[in-house]
Amino acid sequence: MEKRQASSFYQHFDPEERPVVDFFTGLFNRFIFTSEPILTDFLNPRERYIFKKIVGNEAQIVEFGGYQNAEKRRIYLCEWEENISPEMFEIVPIQINYNQKWNELSHSQILGVLTHLGVELSTFGDIINNNKVWQFFVKAELANFFIENITRIGRSKVDLLPISKKEIVEVADDSVEATAVSVTLRLDAVVAAVTNLSRSQVKRQLLEKEIKLNWHETTESNIIVSEDDILSIRHFGRIKIIGVNTTKKGKYRLNIKLWQSKKR
Hints:
By secondary structure, the chain is of the alpha+beta class. The chain is built from 6 helices and 15 strands. The chain has helices at about 20-35, 45-55, 105-115, 145-150, 185-195, 200-205, and strands spanning about 40-45, 60-65, 75-80, 90-95, 125-130, 135-140, 150-155, 155, 160, 175-180, 210-215, 215, 230-235, 235-245, 250-260. The chain is globular, with a radius of gyration of 20 Å.
């Protein structure tokens, strides 16, 4: 295995992603130097994509987020001959117990409480629910910290309890597939086409950092969107571009997968 140079990967990614490239390049070079397995924090799909590009086929990469189809996952980097089991990812699922008869919780409330503990977003994974049952996933070494420090979410008193794999709820995919037509693949035009907002409204959202492209905040409207990109739009939802075709009039027909924000 050859040592990686971060600068050789810069051309393949956006300029604002260079710190991520630097970090993962250093992580892989550490693996080469020590020959010891590396377990990452929870990574979003874009971060995992970058890490995999840097590693290439030089080592074994296995990812797991605590349950099937998890969005945020930890990566285990090791030699090809090593056998990997779920326990090696050191993930603890936690259930939030509360009075379901009189109270309701939301994803945004739970996320707000978790992020206000002073921990990094990478220390916990997905927040999931089925009906009124809410659960989330954390790094094993921080499980007790979350349990001891979270006693209230919104107006609800809560108890956090670690649960077994058998108790993890099944998450329904509430996305819908749709199409939209845009005159260009510029970020502002694509968002406007999907949300039915005006370009000026979209530009204002960009300036207020209410739009993320591949989990990164951006204020630039002229970025070109491509297939497999993920757009997160505050108060609207999340969009994945699953296909791009050209119409007879030279416009772009976007096939999208949409997870729309739930109105409360």
